[in-house]
Amino acid sequence: MTLSVLNQLLHARHSCRAFRAEPVPRDLIEQIVTSASRVPSWCNAQPWQVTITSGSETDRFRQALLEEATSADAAPDLPFPTGYSGVYQERRRACGWALYEAVGVEKGDRAASARQMMENFALFGAPHCAILSSPAELGAYGAMDCGGFVTGFSLAAQAMGVASIPQAAVASYGPFLHRYFDIPDDRLILCAISFGYANPEHPANAFRTERAGLDQIVEWRG
């Protein structure tokens, strides 16, 4: 692969927030996961484990997750950020407002913003969802390795014409996910990846986020 090909994938990939119902063939999903598993990991531990839903299993999970999100308090396995400040807050807000503008949510319309937020728990209509976990004993290092897996998954999916969105929101309900998928308590549920074929006509897929320049992310020495 040349750098130009990799850059094409990186620029084409985006967090898809509206999917078509059409399922992704099983052999394509297997290819995506196989490619993602080639990412590096600490001591080659390869801590990632994924539970992937398809068809009616996705629909059942979607309904159960929506019910959980409207009736229970969030309880993630991995603590969420304590806050966003400075440039990180600015980037977060810019992404949020770009989404709201795309889907017609006006500033101050809390009801509309809440409805859009709940789309997270409807998996944005995706026909598939992957729940990603890592051994609790590996702590931050396992979670860091799984971040590489998420990137590998997203890029491999993009190369196959499959859209995706990594979702921390789904992992908000750790106890529920452990029960629903029978995931052992000695594993940390890190995130979900909803995926399928994008609905290009949906306004939620009409915006793109910006990336910081080198002057913001690199400190040169020597």
- What fold name stands as the CATH topology of the domain at 14-80 and 122-208? NADH Oxidase
How large is the radius of gyration?
Answer: 18 Å
How would a textbook summarize the main sheet?
Answer: 4 strands, antiparallel
Amount of beta strand: 5-15%
Low-confidence stretches: none
CATH class of the domain at 14-80 and 122-208: Alpha Beta
Compact summary:
With 222 residues, this protein is α+β, with helices and mostly antiparallel strands. 44% of the residues lie in helices and 13% in strands.
Structural features, described:
- The structure is a single chain.
- With 222 residues, the chain is of the alpha+beta class.
- It has a domain at 14-80 and 122-208: NADH Oxidase (3-Layer(aba) Sandwich).
- It contains eight helices and four strands, in the order H-H-E-H-H-H-E-H-E-H-E-H.
- The protein has helices at residues 3-12, 26-36, 55-71, 86-103, 110-118, 139-159, 174-181, 214-217, and strands at 49-53, 128-135, 163-167, 187-196.
- It has a four-stranded antiparallel sheet, sandwiched between helices.
- Helix 2 (26-36) crosses helix 6.
- The protein is globular.
- The mean pLDDT is 96.
Task: Please render the helix and strand layout as text.
Layout: H1 3-12, H2 26-36, E1 49-53, H3 55-71, H4 86-103, H5 110-118, E2 128-135, H6 139-159, E3 163-167, H7 174-181, E4 187-196, H8 214-217
Antiparallel strand pairs: 1-2, 2-4, 3-4
Features:
alpha+beta, NADH Oxidase, 4-stranded antiparallel sheet, 8 helices, 4 strands, globular
